[in-house]
């Protein structure tokens, strides 16, 4: 669904339906899903102070009549929120909150009062209903610009909202920060404080409960337990009803939530989005979620709500405490006070005991709901860089040569480096704060990665050629002094990085049922080093990007995978994690995140401020999720149609936040002897190459040349504009990184480098994937650039392949290699010429095609990738139980 700005609310009064009060019922259970009889429940209205009570029967069941509205006169059947975006060009949304299931009809009416489209004619579901209009009429024809009415009718009640359709309406972004539809819902419905109590259990208090029109609500009570989870030989374990501990293999997922148009500090998700995402995670078969930092209170409220409703199989939380990267000094000791303060803040928030004032870039609010019982452990910190460790160790040893041990209240360490001592102190502070303030302890770790592992890697070049095996942090020496949840090692370990995972001869001897697997060798060796200490993969996974930033011995590369391959490889990885007796792993990640950057695409990428406004399908780091974000179908009417008038009939063009599109209509089927050439001039008609690869003279000098055929479609770039080797600094002198005037100079297939000077690897992205509809053995993939279907060809080219630095800003690469800066230029639009290998066709667009810039993310839909369904269908068949 789309992110919605809830600008206003219309209250609809039903004349015939009494929904002022509803029956609320459910069960009160403990964490082992056992019923709790004779538990008392109290619902106190936050506005009137009126209290409603109930008690559970022998089966833990309760029931009571609870008003949904404060006053009997306020009987309502549904609530209508405003239309968004408005004005719109592609899609707009009508949002209805139904207090009960009632039949409704949603219509689009033009300015003449004619109904041009019935969008919806069915019962509304209880809760939120999202109804989208794509600007088309009942027959699928595009409606002209102008004012329209979106109208909902249910029984005798009708509500209408005006909406303006413009062909080039300004892009509408997403709502950020702490605005949530439930904030508006609270203004019109009753809100309660809920207290649930039973002898022998902790009192449960929910300070702000909204029934939401649902009739069933379950509650979970926990025993007073100082050690609900602990580490037990290789695994984290949960206390059972008989006070023994049962090991858990963690099959978790990392909860990144940076939707298009947002950055991590926004934490912009609404309650409704959290509910949907947790449901997807749960239905896929995951048992835990990991957060890196503190979220807004609404996330923890939804987590508690979700786990109460799924008490037989809850989603356990692995909560993080972030260590700032923007530190004043690389000396870790100078960040101690700030980091300890962050630890205390997170612990207080998890126990419902902190109010944080408004601040920029971080979550804030009133944390008054105790969710600590849903937390199985904490991972604090981040991937610390080798230079930070080297700097800290050298400086602190110089100041204090005896800084090699620490004897704390809960942890101690000997024969340690100052950095290891620093981590031991932070872990000890964490455990002491939690134990002294809240009389509780759960397993604890700090984030690490292979770059700092305690192993020696003979294949890795020494510093300064490489810093990947330069230093280490070894907390296997950490000892438990006083009873607590224990320590477990946590690594972000992927199958393609660093190089030693692929190159060490020992690791390369390993294989699994899929084939050679040096990653399995690395995990086996690392786990053997830690012995019985639990080793958890805090991150693992492969992305479904078009570009491949790093090759892997196992074939599980840093990108270059289809969504299907992504799913298969992620199943392979969790199998590897399980068979090496690791404690489990957290798949990275829930969703694609457009804000992310990486070295592979950085030299021709947009600035941080604008990166989240468009989708770079080439970048591996943007495409790790199993949720993708798609805008509506490209509009091929925004630019004039090009009549080629030969066996190639017509050409149309379009764009979206990810691709530039070319649609060709043919008068006959393309055959194996045909080649269609498309010359693309991306900026400045006076720059570029004048001659195509086949010797054909171009109408307009161009930077790119696309060869469409049914055996090997290729995308070429002029030698001058070629960026091959740009990141590593070993491009040829003839590569200017800008378009120049050339006549008969070479055309190169678009390629990227994903290795170092000494280890050059080539990613030939210009060799385009294609789908041939007439081939019964062919199936479309998420990486296909060319689609052949009957007498139609659709081409989609990622912006990055065309050296478009930032499509949202109309910005293309136009560099001066003589400066340190990377120069760009605002394009004057694309000009395209189409011709064939028979030289029977040749036609160019008359005008340059320039798309409007946008400053906010386009409205989008969430789409589950093919990889999600592979995971969901595979997990039940995997025996992911602790050994």
From TrEMBL:
A Pfam family that the UniProt record links to this protein: FlgD_ig
Gene3D superfamilies: 2.60.40.4070, Glycosidases
Species of provenance: Thermaurantimonas aggregans
Record domain FlgD/Vpr Ig-like: where: 103-154
Name of the featured protein: FlgD/Vpr Ig-like domain-containing protein
Keyword annotations from UniProtKB, A to Z: Signal
Lineage: superkingdom: Bacteria
NCBIfam families the UniProt entry points to: Por_Secre_tail (TIGR04183)
């Amino acid at each position: 669904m789309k992110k919605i700005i809830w600008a206003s609310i219309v209250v609809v009064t039903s004349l015939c339906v009494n929904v002022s009060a509803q029956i609320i019922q459910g069960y009160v259970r403990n964490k082992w899903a056992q019923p709790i009889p004779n538990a008392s429940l109290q619902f106190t209205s936050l506005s009137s102070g009126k209290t409603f009570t109930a008690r559970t029967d022998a089966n833990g069941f309760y029931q009571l009549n609870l008003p949904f509205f404060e006053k009997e006169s306020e009987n309502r059947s549904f609530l209508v929120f405003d239309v968004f975006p408005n004005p719109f060009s592609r899609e707009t949304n009508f949002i209805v909150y139904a207090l009960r299931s009632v039949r409704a009809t949603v219509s689009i009416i033009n300015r003449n009062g004619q109904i041009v489209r019935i969008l919806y004619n069915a019962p509304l579901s209880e809760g939120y209903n999202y109804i989208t209009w794509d600007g088309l009429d009942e027959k699928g024809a595009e409606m002209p610009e102008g004012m329209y009415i979106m109208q909902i009718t249910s029984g005798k009640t009708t509500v209408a909202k005006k909406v303006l359709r413009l062909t080039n309406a300004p892009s509408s972004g997403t709502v950020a920060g702490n605005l949530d539809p439930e904030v508006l819902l609270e203004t019109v419905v009753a809100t309660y404080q809920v207290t649930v109590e039973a002898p022998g259990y902790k009192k449960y208090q929910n300070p702000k409960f909204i029934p939401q029109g649902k009739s069933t609500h379950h509650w979970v009570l926990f025993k007073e337990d100082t050690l609900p989870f602990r580490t037990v030989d290789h695994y984290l374990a949960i206390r059972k009803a008989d006070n023994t501990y049962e090991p858990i293999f963690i099959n978790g997922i990392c909860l990144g939530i940076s939707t298009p148009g947002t950055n991590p500090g926004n934490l912009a998700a609404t309650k409704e989005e959290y509910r949907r995402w947790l449901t997807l995670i749960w239905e896929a078969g995951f048992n835990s979620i990991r957060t890196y930092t503190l979220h807004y209170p609404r996330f923890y409220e939804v987590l508690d709500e979700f786990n109460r409703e799924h008490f037989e199989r809850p989603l356990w939380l692995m909560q993080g405490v972030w260590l700032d990267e923007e530190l004043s000094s690389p000396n870790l000791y100078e960040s101690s006070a700030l980091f300890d303060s962050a630890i205390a803040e997170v612990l207080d928030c998890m126990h419902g005991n902190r109010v944080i004032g408004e601040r920029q870039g971080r979550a804030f609010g009133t944390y008054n709901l105790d969710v600590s019982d849903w937390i199985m452990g904490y991972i604090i910190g981040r991937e610390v860089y080798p230079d930070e460790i080297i700097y800290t160790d050298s400086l602190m040893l110089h100041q204090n040569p005896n800084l090699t041990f620490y004897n704390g209240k809960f942890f101690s360490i000997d024969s340690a480096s100052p950095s290891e001592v620093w981590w031991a102190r932070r872990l000890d502070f964490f455990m002491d704060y939690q134990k002294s303030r809240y009389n509780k302890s759960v397993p604890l770790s700090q984030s690490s990665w292979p770059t700092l592992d305690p192993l020696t890697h003979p294949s890795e070049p020494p510093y300064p050629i490489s810093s990947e095996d330069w230093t280490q942090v070894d907390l296997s020496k950490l000892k438990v002094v006083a009873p607590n949840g224990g320590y477990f090692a946590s690594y972000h370990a992927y199958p393609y990085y660093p190089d030693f995972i692929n190159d060490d001869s020992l690791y390369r001897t390993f294989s699994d049922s899929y084939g050679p697997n040096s990653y399995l060798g690395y995990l086996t060796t690392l786990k053997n080093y830690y012995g019985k200490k639990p080793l958890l993969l805090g991150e693992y996974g492969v992305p479904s990007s078009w570009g491949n930033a790093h090759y892997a011995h196992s074939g599980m590369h840093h990108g270059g995978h289809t969504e299907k391959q992504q799913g298969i490889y992620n199943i392979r990885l969790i199998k590897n994690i399980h068979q090496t007796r690791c404690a489990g792993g957290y798949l990275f990640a829930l969703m694609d995140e457009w804000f992310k950057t990486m070295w592979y695409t950085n030299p021709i990428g947009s600035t941080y401020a604008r990166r989240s406004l468009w989708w770079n399908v080439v970048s591996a780091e943007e495409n790790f999720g199993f949720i993708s974000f798609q805008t509506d179908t490209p509009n091929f009417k925004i630019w004039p149609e090009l009549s080629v008038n030969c066996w190639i009939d017509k050409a149309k063009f379009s764009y979206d936040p990810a691709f530039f599109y070319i649609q060709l209509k043919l008068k006959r089927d393309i055959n194996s002897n045909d080649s269609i050439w498309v010359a693309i001039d991306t900026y400045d008609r006076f720059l570029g190459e004048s001659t195509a690869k086949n010797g054909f003279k171009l109408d307009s000098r161009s930077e790119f040349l696309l060869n469409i055929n049914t055996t090997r479609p290729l995308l070429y770039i002029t030698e001058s504009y070629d960026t091959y080797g740009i990141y590593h600094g070993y491009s040829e002198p003839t590569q200017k990184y800008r378009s120049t005037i050339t006549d008969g100079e070479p055309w190169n297939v678009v390629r990227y480098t994903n290795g170092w000077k000494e280890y050059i690897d080539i990613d030939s992205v210009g060799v385009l994937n294609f789908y041939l509809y007439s081939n019964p053995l062919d199936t479309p993939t998420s990486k296909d650039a060319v689609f052949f279907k009957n007498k139609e060809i659709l081409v989609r080219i990622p912006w990055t392949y065309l050296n478009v630095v930032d499509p949202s800003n109309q910005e293309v690469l136009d560099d001066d290699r003589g400066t340190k800066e990377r120069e760009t230029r605002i394009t004057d639009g694309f000009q395209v010429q189409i011709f064939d290998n028979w030289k029977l066709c040749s036609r160019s667009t008359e005008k340059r095609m320039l798309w409007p810039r946008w400053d906010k993310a386009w409205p989008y839909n969430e789409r589950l990738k093919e990889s999600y369904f592979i995971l969901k269908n595979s997990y039940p068949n995997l025996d992911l139980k602790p050994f």
